[in-house]
Design a protein that fits this description.
The termini are far apart. The model has no long low-confidence stretch (mean pLDDT 87). It is built from four helices and two strands, in the order αβααβα. It is mostly helical. It has one domain.
């Protein structure tokens, strides 16, 4: 069973796996604002992403792509 199936708060590696992307791509998407920033509620060196927030971010990104495609 994958880590993201067990818990709501995901490590960087688990968040990337959950979204089917490389860790570097996750960092780029967060920096670009396409995905939410992590929470540091466990400490400054342990970023955690909320699985539900990642789903919402992915949904918003997909909706934005649809709007751009429809304009063309």
């Amino acid at each position: 069973m994958a880590e993201y199936e067990k818990t709501r708060w995901l490590s960087r590696r688990a968040a990337a796996e959950y979204l089917s992307m490389e860790v570097d791509h996750l960092k780029r998407h967060v920096k670009a604002g396409r995905l939410p920033k992590p929470s540091f509620h466990l400490g400054p060196k342990t970023p955690r992403w909320d699985r539900e927030a990642l789903d919402a971010g992915r949904y918003r990104a997909a909706r934005a792509r649809q709007k751009v495609t429809r304009r063309r």
